[in-house]
């Protein structure tokens, strides 16, 4: 059995925290989280994950993610979870702002991740920015696929 790397465990937990932060898990958030689980840790039970993260402190999870590239993709998917239901609540916004600040993401990369998420939902999607491939190739997410 392959053990899930700590940054990916932290990612799953941070994504789950984003999904529950506003007190409800929208069906679109659940679907996106199920997809992320399937890609990165298919043996993870979504209901257990969602129930287990309420009392886990964000700072404890953030501390286990040490590479900029992993931080970028965790933040990008957290943003996608927050906005997938088209209801970006104040709690989700505060959570994302705190997460991205704790991860010390550059303004350029914050713009990139927001543009990437918006592009996913566009009727006329643009080709991905080459920086995405560069960041991805150096992340633990590349190894997980």
Describe the structure in your own words.
- This is TerB family tellurite resistance protein.
- InterPro entries: TerB-like (IPR029024).
- The protein has 9 helices and no strands.
- The protein is mostly helical and 145 residues long.
- It has a single domain, classed as TerB-like, CATH 1.10.3680.
- The protein is globular and about 35 Å long.
- The two termini are 16 Å apart.
- The model has no long low-confidence stretch (mean pLDDT 91).
Please give a quick description of this structure.
The protein has 145 residues and is mostly helical.
CATH architecture name: Orthogonal Bundle
Q: Major beta sheet, specifics?
A: none
In percent terms, what proportion of residues is strand?
under 5%
Q: CATH superfamily, called what?
A: TerB-like
Uncertain residue segments: none
The tally of structural domains comes to: 1
Q: Which fold does the CATH topology refer to?
A: TerB-like
Strand and helix layout:
Blueprint: H1 6-20, H2 27-40, H3 46-52, H4 58-62, H5 68-83, H6 90-102, H7 107-120, H8 130-137, H9 140-144
Helix pairs in contact: 1-2, 1-5, 5-6, 5-7
């Amino acid at each position: 059995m392959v053990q899930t790397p700590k940054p990916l465990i932290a990612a799953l937990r941070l994504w789950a925290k984003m999904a529950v932060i506003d007190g409800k898990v929208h069906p679109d958030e659940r679907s996106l989280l199920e997809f992320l689980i399937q890609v990165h840790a298919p043996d993870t039970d979504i209901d257990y994950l969602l129930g287990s993260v309420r009392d886990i402190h964000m700072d404890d999870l953030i501390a286990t993610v040490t590479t900029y590239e992993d931080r970028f993709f965790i933040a990008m998917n957290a943003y996608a979870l927050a906005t997938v239901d088209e209801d970006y609540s104040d709690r989700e916004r505060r959570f994302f702002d705190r997460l991205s600040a704790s991860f010390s993401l550059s303004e350029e990369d914050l713009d990139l991740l927001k543009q990437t998420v918006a592009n996913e939902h566009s009727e006329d999607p643009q080709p991905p920015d080459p920086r995405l491939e560069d960041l991805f190739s150096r992340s633990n997410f590349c190894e997980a696929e």
